[in-house]
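Human: Here is a favour to ask of a fellow structure person. Comparing notes only helps if you start from a blank page. I am asking you to supply a protein in sequence and structure-token form. Write it directly below this note and I will take it from there.

Assistant:
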Amino acid sequence: MTDADPVFSLDDHGHMQAALGLARRNLGRVWPNPSVGCIVVKEGVVLGRGVTAPGGRPHGEPQALAQAGGAARGATVYVSLEPCNHHGKTPPCSEALIAAGVARIVVACEDPDPRVSGSGIRRLREASIQVDVGLCAEEAQEVNHGFITRIMKGRPGVTLKLATSLDARVATAAGHSQWITGPESRARGHLLRAHHDAILVGIGTVLADDPELTCRLPGLEAANPVRIVLDSSLRLPVTAKLVQGAASVAPTWVVTRAGADAAKAAALEAFGVRILRVDGDVRGQPPVQAALNALAGQGITRLLVEGGPTVATAFLKSGLVDQVEWFRAPMLIGGDGLSAVAGLDTDLLSQALRLSPAHDLVDSYRPR
């Protein structure tokens, strides 16, 4: 077996796309593990499909192999991330693939986890299995961007969600904000929640709106993210919906400063709230980098930030936002409205924060 660039067929591409589709299906539900899709194919017939199960186990490969049974011998396996090669709570997937007697494995991209990091591929090749790497690699890396970011940078992948008027306002001067966007945008926002491990807001949003931060799409009501509040002074009231539902609706975590009031922390913990303490304090909020490091330490890989202007600005100024999902309504509120983003200390256009389109969409509006 060599490391020469493999040549992939149209069938290879089709099966890998199916594996990636499976991986996307469980995003937001498998942390701290990556979501990995697997397809077992023999003589053009799909014998088994699998994807990392909610909670991170079992992995996709053993599920697909179990469906295929003995017919997996001599088959080709398509997997969206390098098979694991270490013993954890389950045996390594590389071991299961070798035992199944598969003939060829197509891997989209390597797993950067130091416990794997090419060792799974080497072990499979040492077992005389043909392993071809790199098919749809960019797509695979995008699917597990959050997991890869946690491994490589020690923080989750961060998506900032903004919902504004066309002139980037989130409320009128009187504070009226519901609803700027319509039901379609709100449904898309709830889908984003379902596809992220956790959702983060600042204490100001909680005190103003008392949100639930749940996914309320039909069929996805159970796909609630962990609810996270940045609250340096532990002002979160025990009567808040996030606190009252911490043990029954979805987990609620509070990121606060190291010296925050111990008695208030204990009161919140009595309702099932988890308290994460970090060092430092910036403008009433824990430092963004420290907060993200703490969340990564708890296994969070995909974080959706839905906070108000203070939190949005802090994340943008930190340079730690990986993607912006910006929902814009065809209305103008005017300069006296509340801006979605506060000052970014920009004096020159060359200092402006620039964004590149993530989707091929063009917005076109006219007054009505």
